[in-house]
Amino acid sequence: MDGLFFLTLFSSLSFLFFGVGCFFSPRMKLEFIRYGLNRQQRLLTGLLQILGSLGLLLGLFMSPILCLVASLGLFLLMLLGLMVRIRIKDSILKSSPALIYALINLFLASAYYGLIFMD
Prior knowledge:
Blueprint: H1 3-24, H2 26-35, H3 39-61, H4 64-87, H5 92-117
């Protein structure tokens, strides 16, 4: 198993977990209230996380283009999440997961872009 496969799988499973949490976790519901976001935004975020997760997972076995699109979407989602964290003045420690996942997915997008268009 190579690093790109592992990182893609890690991101996919993480976002599947977080996406499902947006629908069912009482803690996640409280977090979105703290962010100043409503129920529809929480559910949309969860849906987008699940779709991105499935895109990465299916892309691993079907098409690197699917991985590219999914990782770009998750990167943008985490970039927006980081902006929300900055807006509500969260600490660097509390904001770091959004930054780390944004960077992971930016790296994945770059790697899949290279696989598709540079080979």
